[in-house]
Design a protein that fits this description.
Layout lengths: L2 H5 L8 H6 L2 E2 L7 E2 L4 H10 L10 H23 L5 H13 L6 E3 L3 E3 L5 H17 L6 E3 L8 E3 L11 H22 L1
Antiparallel strand pairs: 1-2, 3-4, 5-6
Helix pairs in contact: 4-5, 4-6, 5-6
C-alpha cells in the first residue's frame, strides 16, 4: 500500500463523526496512520465532510480535532460493544458540546442547506452533537467494531453482518488470516 492510499481520507463509515474516527488508521498498531497532519488536511477533511468553517483552521484546530476524535473513540467502542462508556471520555465529550455556541441557520435554495460553521471549533460542536445523537439514539444498535485488532474502527453496520470495517485492507487481511487458520487446522487433523 502506498502513502497516498494510507493517507487517503475515508468517508465510508456511515456518519461524519465515524469518519472522523477513521482519520487515524491502524490506530491500535505500533505504527498508526495520522491523516489529520496539518491545518490544510483538516480543512480538506472538513470541506469534504460538509462542515467547512468560514475561517480556515489553524494548528490548534488540528490538535482539537484529534482530541475530539480520541475523546469519541472510547465512548464509541463502549457503546458498540455494549459496555459502559468511560466517565472521563463522556465528560470530555460534554466539554466539546459546551465549548462554543453554534447556531445553525437553514437556507432554502435549490435544496435545503445549512449555514457554515463560523470556526473549526463550531464545526467540532456539530460533529460532537451528531455523535451524541447517534450514540444515544436508536442508531447505536447499528454500531460495530472492526474485527482487525490493529484497526478496531467503529462503523455503522445496518445489516448487522459485517465483521470488518469498510476498509478493503481489513477485510483482506482478515480473510487471509481465516483462510490460513482453516488450512492449518485441516493439516492438523490429517
Amino acid at each position: 500500500m502506498n502513502d497516498d492510499d494510507r493517507l487517503a481520507f475515508r468517508f465510508d463509515c456511515g456518519a461524519t463523526w465515524l469518519n472522523l474516527l477513521a482519520t487515524s488508521g491502524r490506530t491500535f498498531s505500533p505504527r498508526p496512520v495520522e491523516r489529520l497532519s496539518s491545518p490544510e488536511r483538516l480543512a480538506e477533511w472538513l470541506d469534504r465532510s460538509g462542515v467547512a468553517p468560514l475561517t480556515a483552521p489553524g494548528p490548534d484546530d488540528v490538535r482539537t480535532a484529534r482530541d475530539l476524535r480520541e475523546t469519541l473513540r472510547p465512548v464509541a467502542l463502549a457503546v458498540a460493544t455494549g459496555e459502559p462508556p468511560p466517565a472521563d471520555a463522556v465528560a470530555g465529550l460534554q466539554r466539546f458540546l459546551d465549548a462554543e455556541p453554534d447556531t445553525v441557520r437553514l437556507i432554502a435554495s435549490d435544496r435545503l442547506l445549512r449555514s457554515a460553521p463560523a470556526t473549526a471549533a463550531a464545526a467540532f460542536v456539530r460533529i460532537a452533537r451528531q455523535a451524541v445523537d447517534h450514540l444515544t439514539g436508536p442508531e447505536r444498535a447499528d454500531l460495530a467494531v472492526c474485527a482487525e485488532g490493529d484497526c478496531r474502527a467503529v462503523f455503522s453496520d445496518q445489516g448487522g453482518r459485517r465483521r470488518w470495517c469498510p476498509s478493503a485492507a481489513c477485510a483482506s487481511r482478515g480473510r487471509v488470516r481465516a483462510h490460513r487458520e482453516r488450512r492449518r487446522a485441516a493439516r492438523a487433523t490429517d
